[in-house]
Design goal:
The chain has 21 helices and two strands. It has helices at residues 2-23, 41-96, 100-119, 127-144, 148-160, 168-187, 191-199, 203-206, 209-221, 225-237, 243-259, 264-273, 276-279, 282-294, 299-314, 323-335, 342-354, 359-371, 375-388, 392-408, 412-428; strands spanning 27-32, 35-40. A hairpin with a 2-residue loop joins strand 1 and strand 2 (35-40).
Protein backbone atom coordinates (compact mmCIF):
# COMPACT_ATOMS: atom_id res chain seq x y z
CA UNK A 1 0.00 0.00 0.00
CA UNK A 2 2.80 2.37 0.89
CA UNK A 3 4.61 1.64 -2.40
CA UNK A 4 1.46 2.40 -4.35
CA UNK A 5 1.05 5.72 -2.58
CA UNK A 6 4.67 6.64 -3.32
CA UNK A 7 4.16 5.72 -6.97
CA UNK A 8 1.08 7.91 -7.22
CA UNK A 9 2.91 10.81 -5.55
CA UNK A 10 5.87 10.46 -7.93
CA UNK A 11 3.51 10.29 -10.91
CA UNK A 12 1.71 13.43 -9.75
CA UNK A 13 4.99 15.30 -9.28
CA UNK A 14 6.13 14.30 -12.78
CA UNK A 15 2.87 15.53 -14.31
CA UNK A 16 3.10 18.83 -12.42
CA UNK A 17 6.70 19.31 -13.50
CA UNK A 18 5.81 18.60 -17.15
CA UNK A 19 2.95 21.08 -17.09
CA UNK A 20 5.13 23.69 -15.40
CA UNK A 21 8.02 23.23 -17.81
CA UNK A 22 5.82 23.06 -20.90
CA UNK A 23 3.92 26.28 -20.19
CA UNK A 24 6.77 28.23 -18.64
CA UNK A 25 7.81 31.14 -20.92
CA UNK A 26 10.07 32.76 -18.39
CA UNK A 27 13.65 33.73 -19.17
CA UNK A 28 16.70 34.63 -17.19
CA UNK A 29 18.95 37.40 -18.48
CA UNK A 30 22.55 37.54 -17.40
CA UNK A 31 24.41 40.84 -17.97
CA UNK A 32 28.19 40.61 -18.22
CA UNK A 33 29.22 43.85 -19.94
CA UNK A 34 29.54 44.11 -22.80
CA UNK A 35 27.68 40.79 -23.06
CA UNK A 36 24.08 39.81 -22.48
CA UNK A 37 22.93 36.23 -22.21
CA UNK A 38 19.29 35.21 -22.27
CA UNK A 39 18.53 31.79 -20.88
CA UNK A 40 15.34 29.85 -20.48
CA UNK A 41 14.13 29.54 -16.89
CA UNK A 42 13.79 25.79 -17.32
CA UNK A 43 17.42 25.51 -18.40
CA UNK A 44 18.57 27.58 -15.45
CA UNK A 45 16.67 25.33 -13.07
CA UNK A 46 18.20 22.23 -14.67
CA UNK A 47 21.69 23.75 -14.48
CA UNK A 48 21.26 24.65 -10.80
CA UNK A 49 20.05 21.18 -9.96
CA UNK A 50 22.87 19.57 -11.91
CA UNK A 51 25.46 21.83 -10.29
CA UNK A 52 24.15 21.03 -6.83
CA UNK A 53 24.22 17.30 -7.60
CA UNK A 54 27.79 17.45 -8.90
CA UNK A 55 28.95 19.50 -5.87
CA UNK A 56 27.25 17.10 -3.43
CA UNK A 57 28.76 14.06 -5.15
CA UNK A 58 32.21 15.67 -5.11
CA UNK A 59 31.96 16.45 -1.39
CA UNK A 60 30.77 12.94 -0.61
CA UNK A 61 33.61 11.44 -2.63
CA UNK A 62 36.16 13.62 -0.85
CA UNK A 63 34.70 12.67 2.54
CA UNK A 64 34.82 8.96 1.66
CA UNK A 65 38.43 9.34 0.54
CA UNK A 66 39.40 11.01 3.80
CA UNK A 67 37.56 8.34 5.84
CA UNK A 68 39.34 5.40 4.21
CA UNK A 69 42.06 5.03 6.93
CA UNK A 70 39.44 5.20 9.70
CA UNK A 71 37.20 2.70 7.92
CA UNK A 72 40.12 0.34 7.44
CA UNK A 73 41.00 0.57 11.14
CA UNK A 74 37.38 -0.01 12.10
CA UNK A 75 37.22 -3.05 9.83
CA UNK A 76 40.36 -4.52 11.41
CA UNK A 77 38.94 -4.02 14.92
CA UNK A 78 35.67 -5.64 13.91
CA UNK A 79 37.59 -8.63 12.60
CA UNK A 80 39.43 -8.88 15.92
CA UNK A 81 36.14 -8.66 17.81
CA UNK A 82 34.64 -11.44 15.71
CA UNK A 83 37.76 -13.53 16.24
CA UNK A 84 37.55 -12.99 19.99
CA UNK A 85 33.91 -14.09 20.14
CA UNK A 86 34.68 -17.06 17.93
CA UNK A 87 37.59 -18.11 20.15
CA UNK A 88 35.44 -17.90 23.28
CA UNK A 89 32.66 -19.95 21.68
CA UNK A 90 35.22 -22.49 20.53
CA UNK A 91 36.65 -22.69 24.06
CA UNK A 92 33.22 -23.38 25.53
CA UNK A 93 32.48 -26.01 22.89
CA UNK A 94 35.82 -27.75 23.41
CA UNK A 95 35.39 -27.75 27.18
CA UNK A 96 31.94 -29.30 26.95
CA UNK A 97 33.35 -31.91 24.57
CA UNK A 98 36.08 -32.81 27.08
CA UNK A 99 38.97 -31.44 25.02
CA UNK A 100 40.40 -29.40 27.84
CA UNK A 101 43.79 -28.61 26.33
CA UNK A 102 42.18 -27.13 23.21
CA UNK A 103 39.61 -25.34 25.37
CA UNK A 104 42.31 -23.65 27.46
CA UNK A 105 44.24 -22.64 24.36
CA UNK A 106 41.14 -21.12 22.75
CA UNK A 107 40.22 -19.30 25.98
CA UNK A 108 43.72 -17.82 26.26
CA UNK A 109 43.46 -16.71 22.63
CA UNK A 110 40.19 -14.94 23.40
CA UNK A 111 41.85 -13.21 26.37
CA UNK A 112 44.72 -11.97 24.19
CA UNK A 113 42.36 -10.65 21.55
CA UNK A 114 40.24 -8.85 24.12
CA UNK A 115 43.39 -7.26 25.56
CA UNK A 116 44.45 -6.17 22.07
CA UNK A 117 41.08 -4.51 21.57
CA UNK A 118 41.40 -2.71 24.89
CA UNK A 119 44.93 -1.56 24.08
CA UNK A 120 43.62 -0.20 20.78
CA UNK A 121 41.12 1.90 22.76
CA UNK A 122 38.29 -0.10 21.29
CA UNK A 123 37.15 -1.83 24.44
CA UNK A 124 33.79 -3.58 24.23
CA UNK A 125 30.92 -2.57 26.53
CA UNK A 126 30.81 -6.18 27.76
CA UNK A 127 34.53 -6.79 27.45
CA UNK A 128 35.02 -7.33 31.19
CA UNK A 129 32.41 -10.09 31.31
CA UNK A 130 33.89 -11.78 28.26
CA UNK A 131 37.39 -11.62 29.73
CA UNK A 132 36.17 -13.09 33.03
CA UNK A 133 34.34 -15.92 31.28
CA UNK A 134 37.43 -16.70 29.24
CA UNK A 135 39.56 -16.85 32.42
CA UNK A 136 37.00 -19.14 34.07
CA UNK A 137 36.94 -21.47 31.06
CA UNK A 138 40.74 -21.60 31.12
CA UNK A 139 40.69 -22.26 34.88
CA UNK A 140 38.06 -25.01 34.53
CA UNK A 141 40.08 -26.66 31.77
CA UNK A 142 43.27 -26.42 33.85
CA UNK A 143 41.45 -28.04 36.77
CA UNK A 144 40.41 -30.92 34.54
CA UNK A 145 44.04 -31.21 33.42
CA UNK A 146 45.14 -31.19 37.11
CA UNK A 147 47.23 -28.08 36.47
CA UNK A 148 46.61 -26.36 39.79
CA UNK A 149 49.03 -23.44 39.36
CA UNK A 150 47.54 -22.39 36.02
CA UNK A 151 44.05 -22.82 37.41
CA UNK A 152 44.74 -20.57 40.39
CA UNK A 153 46.39 -17.98 38.13
CA UNK A 154 43.36 -17.75 35.83
CA UNK A 155 41.01 -17.74 38.81
CA UNK A 156 42.80 -14.81 40.41
CA UNK A 157 42.81 -12.91 37.11
CA UNK A 158 39.08 -13.55 36.77
CA UNK A 159 38.43 -12.23 40.28
CA UNK A 160 40.67 -9.20 39.67
CA UNK A 161 38.67 -8.37 36.55
CA UNK A 162 35.46 -8.03 38.56
CA UNK A 163 34.95 -5.16 41.03
CA UNK A 164 33.46 -5.94 44.41
CA UNK A 165 30.69 -3.44 43.67
CA UNK A 166 28.88 -2.95 40.44
CA UNK A 167 25.87 -4.08 38.41
CA UNK A 168 24.22 -7.35 39.33
CA UNK A 169 25.27 -9.00 36.05
CA UNK A 170 28.94 -8.39 36.86
CA UNK A 171 28.67 -9.39 40.54
CA UNK A 172 27.01 -12.66 39.55
CA UNK A 173 30.16 -13.52 37.61
CA UNK A 174 32.22 -13.02 40.76
CA UNK A 175 29.86 -15.23 42.75
CA UNK A 176 30.00 -17.87 40.04
CA UNK A 177 33.78 -17.81 40.09
CA UNK A 178 33.81 -18.29 43.87
CA UNK A 179 31.37 -21.19 43.62
CA UNK A 180 33.49 -22.88 40.97
CA UNK A 181 36.59 -22.38 43.10
CA UNK A 182 34.84 -23.99 46.08
CA UNK A 183 33.88 -27.01 43.98
CA UNK A 184 37.46 -27.34 42.72
CA UNK A 185 38.66 -27.43 46.33
CA UNK A 186 36.09 -30.11 47.12
CA UNK A 187 37.31 -32.18 44.18
CA UNK A 188 40.74 -32.06 45.85
CA UNK A 189 39.12 -32.89 49.22
CA UNK A 190 40.32 -29.58 50.61
CA UNK A 191 37.28 -28.86 52.75
CA UNK A 192 38.86 -25.98 54.66
CA UNK A 193 39.56 -23.92 51.54
CA UNK A 194 36.12 -24.73 50.17
CA UNK A 195 34.44 -23.46 53.34
CA UNK A 196 36.51 -20.27 53.24
CA UNK A 197 35.42 -19.57 49.70
CA UNK A 198 31.79 -20.37 50.48
CA UNK A 199 31.85 -18.07 53.52
CA UNK A 200 32.95 -15.19 51.27
CA UNK A 201 29.69 -15.43 49.30
CA UNK A 202 26.82 -13.01 49.99
CA UNK A 203 24.02 -14.32 52.19
CA UNK A 204 21.59 -14.72 49.31
CA UNK A 205 24.08 -16.58 47.14
CA UNK A 206 25.13 -18.83 50.01
CA UNK A 207 21.55 -20.13 50.29
CA UNK A 208 21.35 -21.22 46.66
CA UNK A 209 21.06 -24.95 46.04
CA UNK A 210 24.48 -25.22 44.38
CA UNK A 211 26.19 -23.43 47.27
CA UNK A 212 24.33 -25.52 49.85
CA UNK A 213 25.33 -28.75 48.11
CA UNK A 214 28.95 -27.66 48.21
CA UNK A 215 28.66 -26.65 51.88
CA UNK A 216 27.11 -30.03 52.75
CA UNK A 217 29.97 -31.90 51.16
CA UNK A 218 32.58 -29.62 52.77
CA UNK A 219 31.12 -29.92 56.27
CA UNK A 220 30.89 -33.70 55.95
CA UNK A 221 34.51 -33.87 54.83
CA UNK A 222 35.48 -31.68 57.80
CA UNK A 223 33.43 -33.85 60.20
CA UNK A 224 31.33 -30.80 61.11
CA UNK A 225 28.28 -32.96 61.55
CA UNK A 226 26.03 -30.39 63.21
CA UNK A 227 26.58 -27.83 60.43
CA UNK A 228 26.14 -30.56 57.83
CA UNK A 229 22.81 -31.51 59.38
CA UNK A 230 21.59 -27.90 59.24
CA UNK A 231 22.64 -27.67 55.60
CA UNK A 232 20.91 -30.94 54.75
CA UNK A 233 17.70 -29.62 56.29
CA UNK A 234 17.88 -26.51 54.09
CA UNK A 235 18.49 -28.63 51.00
CA UNK A 236 15.50 -30.75 51.89
CA UNK A 237 13.32 -27.64 52.18
CA UNK A 238 14.63 -26.42 48.81
CA UNK A 239 13.73 -29.84 47.31
CA UNK A 240 17.29 -30.35 46.16
CA UNK A 241 16.86 -34.08 46.81
CA UNK A 242 13.98 -36.47 46.54
CA UNK A 243 12.04 -36.84 49.83
CA UNK A 244 13.51 -40.31 50.40
CA UNK A 245 17.07 -39.14 49.71
CA UNK A 246 16.68 -36.08 51.93
CA UNK A 247 15.33 -38.23 54.78
CA UNK A 248 18.18 -40.70 54.38
CA UNK A 249 20.84 -37.97 54.49
CA UNK A 250 19.30 -36.25 57.51
CA UNK A 251 18.90 -39.59 59.28
CA UNK A 252 22.52 -40.56 58.66
CA UNK A 253 23.85 -37.22 59.89
CA UNK A 254 21.64 -37.28 62.98
CA UNK A 255 22.83 -40.79 63.86
CA UNK A 256 26.43 -39.70 63.34
CA UNK A 257 25.86 -36.71 65.60
CA UNK A 258 24.32 -38.94 68.27
CA UNK A 259 27.19 -41.42 68.12
CA UNK A 260 29.62 -38.55 68.67
CA UNK A 261 28.12 -37.62 72.06
CA UNK A 262 30.48 -38.25 75.00
CA UNK A 263 28.15 -37.79 77.98
CA UNK A 264 24.41 -37.76 78.70
CA UNK A 265 24.20 -33.96 78.90
CA UNK A 266 25.74 -33.54 75.45
CA UNK A 267 23.44 -36.21 74.07
CA UNK A 268 20.46 -34.45 75.66
CA UNK A 269 21.45 -31.20 73.95
CA UNK A 270 21.76 -32.99 70.61
CA UNK A 271 18.39 -34.66 71.06
CA UNK A 272 16.65 -31.37 71.84
CA UNK A 273 18.32 -29.81 68.78
CA UNK A 274 16.66 -32.33 66.49
CA UNK A 275 13.36 -31.53 64.83
CA UNK A 276 10.25 -33.35 65.99
CA UNK A 277 10.00 -35.28 62.71
CA UNK A 278 13.59 -36.41 63.13
CA UNK A 279 13.06 -37.55 66.72
CA UNK A 280 10.13 -39.65 65.50
CA UNK A 281 12.30 -41.61 63.04
CA UNK A 282 12.79 -45.12 64.47
CA UNK A 283 16.46 -45.31 63.48
CA UNK A 284 17.28 -42.03 65.22
CA UNK A 285 15.21 -42.69 68.34
CA UNK A 286 16.62 -46.20 68.82
CA UNK A 287 20.19 -45.06 68.25
CA UNK A 288 19.77 -42.18 70.71
CA UNK A 289 18.23 -44.48 73.31
CA UNK A 290 21.00 -47.06 72.94
CA UNK A 291 23.66 -44.37 73.12
CA UNK A 292 22.09 -42.91 76.26
CA UNK A 293 22.04 -46.36 77.87
CA UNK A 294 25.72 -46.91 77.06
CA UNK A 295 26.61 -43.49 78.50
CA UNK A 296 24.85 -44.32 81.77
CA UNK A 297 21.78 -42.15 81.26
CA UNK A 298 18.54 -42.54 83.16
CA UNK A 299 16.40 -45.51 82.12
CA UNK A 300 13.25 -43.41 82.36
CA UNK A 301 14.72 -40.97 79.82
CA UNK A 302 15.58 -43.83 77.50
CA UNK A 303 12.02 -45.11 77.64
CA UNK A 304 10.67 -41.59 77.04
CA UNK A 305 12.70 -41.29 73.85
CA UNK A 306 11.49 -44.70 72.68
CA UNK A 307 7.82 -44.07 73.44
CA UNK A 308 6.81 -42.65 69.98
CA UNK A 309 8.53 -45.56 68.22
CA UNK A 310 6.96 -48.05 70.62
CA UNK A 311 3.48 -46.66 69.96
CA UNK A 312 4.05 -46.90 66.23
CA UNK A 313 5.31 -50.49 66.53
CA UNK A 314 2.31 -51.77 68.51
CA UNK A 315 -0.31 -49.77 66.61
CA UNK A 316 -1.92 -52.04 63.97
CA UNK A 317 -3.08 -48.97 62.03
CA UNK A 318 0.54 -47.89 61.45
CA UNK A 319 2.85 -49.51 58.88
CA UNK A 320 4.81 -52.32 60.50
CA UNK A 321 8.43 -51.64 61.32
CA UNK A 322 11.06 -53.70 59.49
CA UNK A 323 12.23 -56.72 61.46
CA UNK A 324 15.64 -55.27 62.19
CA UNK A 325 14.18 -52.03 63.51
CA UNK A 326 11.62 -53.86 65.65
CA UNK A 327 14.42 -56.04 67.08
CA UNK A 328 16.46 -52.95 67.95
CA UNK A 329 13.45 -51.36 69.67
CA UNK A 330 12.94 -54.47 71.81
CA UNK A 331 16.64 -54.65 72.68
CA UNK A 332 16.75 -50.94 73.55
CA UNK A 333 13.67 -51.26 75.77
CA UNK A 334 15.09 -54.38 77.42
CA UNK A 335 18.21 -52.45 78.38
CA UNK A 336 16.10 -49.66 79.91
CA UNK A 337 13.63 -51.71 82.00
CA UNK A 338 15.53 -51.21 85.23
CA UNK A 339 13.26 -49.46 87.69
CA UNK A 340 10.26 -50.10 85.44
CA UNK A 341 7.26 -48.02 86.45
CA UNK A 342 3.63 -49.13 86.41
CA UNK A 343 2.59 -47.17 83.26
CA UNK A 344 5.25 -48.82 81.15
CA UNK A 345 4.43 -52.25 82.57
CA UNK A 346 0.81 -51.67 81.61
CA UNK A 347 1.82 -50.58 78.10
CA UNK A 348 3.91 -53.70 77.55
CA UNK A 349 1.28 -56.07 78.94
CA UNK A 350 -1.50 -54.43 76.92
CA UNK A 351 0.55 -54.70 73.72
CA UNK A 352 1.36 -58.35 74.44
CA UNK A 353 -2.25 -59.21 75.13
CA UNK A 354 -3.38 -57.42 71.99
CA UNK A 355 -0.81 -59.37 69.94
CA UNK A 356 -0.57 -62.75 71.72
CA UNK A 357 1.33 -64.37 68.84
CA UNK A 358 4.07 -61.73 68.70
CA UNK A 359 7.08 -63.53 70.17
CA UNK A 360 9.05 -60.28 70.60
CA UNK A 361 6.28 -58.78 72.74
CA UNK A 362 6.11 -62.01 74.76
CA UNK A 363 9.83 -61.79 75.39
CA UNK A 364 9.67 -58.10 76.36
CA UNK A 365 6.69 -58.71 78.64
CA UNK A 366 8.61 -61.56 80.32
CA UNK A 367 11.59 -59.24 80.96
CA UNK A 368 9.21 -56.64 82.43
CA UNK A 369 7.69 -59.29 84.71
CA UNK A 370 11.18 -60.21 85.91
CA UNK A 371 11.83 -56.57 86.75
CA UNK A 372 8.61 -56.55 88.78
CA UNK A 373 9.57 -59.95 90.34
CA UNK A 374 6.64 -61.77 88.76
CA UNK A 375 8.66 -64.98 88.41
CA UNK A 376 5.94 -67.41 87.41
CA UNK A 377 4.49 -65.23 84.69
CA UNK A 378 7.97 -64.40 83.44
CA UNK A 379 8.88 -68.09 83.15
CA UNK A 380 5.68 -68.86 81.24
CA UNK A 381 6.24 -66.04 78.75
CA UNK A 382 9.94 -66.86 78.30
CA UNK A 383 9.06 -70.48 77.57
CA UNK A 384 6.57 -69.42 74.89
CA UNK A 385 8.91 -66.87 73.37
CA UNK A 386 11.89 -69.22 73.25
CA UNK A 387 9.96 -71.60 70.98
CA UNK A 388 8.64 -68.92 68.62
CA UNK A 389 11.35 -66.25 68.36
CA UNK A 390 13.08 -65.99 64.99
CA UNK A 391 15.81 -63.65 66.26
CA UNK A 392 18.76 -65.73 67.46
CA UNK A 393 19.98 -63.10 70.00
CA UNK A 394 16.54 -62.92 71.63
CA UNK A 395 16.19 -66.74 71.62
CA UNK A 396 19.56 -67.09 73.35
CA UNK A 397 18.60 -64.40 75.86
CA UNK A 398 15.23 -66.09 76.53
CA UNK A 399 16.95 -69.43 77.28
CA UNK A 400 19.45 -67.68 79.49
CA UNK A 401 16.64 -66.08 81.52
CA UNK A 402 14.92 -69.48 81.79
CA UNK A 403 18.16 -70.95 83.11
CA UNK A 404 18.41 -68.19 85.73
CA UNK A 405 14.80 -68.70 86.80
CA UNK A 406 15.33 -72.49 87.03
CA UNK A 407 18.41 -71.92 89.14
CA UNK A 408 16.42 -69.63 91.48
CA UNK A 409 13.86 -72.35 92.15
CA UNK A 410 16.58 -75.04 92.48
CA UNK A 411 15.73 -77.03 89.33
CA UNK A 412 19.22 -78.04 88.23
CA UNK A 413 18.14 -80.23 85.32
CA UNK A 414 15.96 -77.50 83.81
CA UNK A 415 18.71 -74.94 84.33
CA UNK A 416 21.29 -77.14 82.60
CA UNK A 417 18.96 -77.74 79.66
CA UNK A 418 18.25 -74.02 79.35
CA UNK A 419 21.96 -73.14 79.49
CA UNK A 420 22.64 -75.71 76.80
CA UNK A 421 19.95 -74.23 74.54
CA UNK A 422 21.29 -70.73 75.16
CA UNK A 423 24.77 -71.87 74.14
CA UNK A 424 23.41 -73.49 71.00
CA UNK A 425 21.54 -70.30 70.02
CA UNK A 426 24.66 -68.18 70.57
CA UNK A 427 26.66 -70.56 68.42
CA UNK A 428 24.00 -70.38 65.70
CA UNK A 429 24.09 -66.61 65.85
Amino acid sequence: MRAALWFLALFGAAVALALFAGNNQGTVTVFWPPYRVDLSLNLVVVLLLGGFTLLYAALRGLSALLQLPLQARRWRLQQKERAMHGALLDALSQMLAGRFLRARKAAESAIEQEKALEDARHGLPHGRQLRTLAHLVAAESSHALQDRSTRESHLQLALDSIPERGPASILELREGAQLRAARWSLDERDAGTALERLSALPAGTARRTLALRARLKATRLSHMTEQALETARLLGKHRAFSPAAAESIVRGLAVELINGAHDPSQLQRIWLGLESAERAMPEIAVQAAQRLSRLGGEAAQVRAWLLPVWERMVDPAQPALPDQQALKVVQALEASLEGLDAPWLARIEAAQQANPRDARLQYLSAVACMQRELWGKAQHLFAQAAQQLRDAPLRASAWRHLAELAGQRGDGAAAAHAWQQAALQRAAD
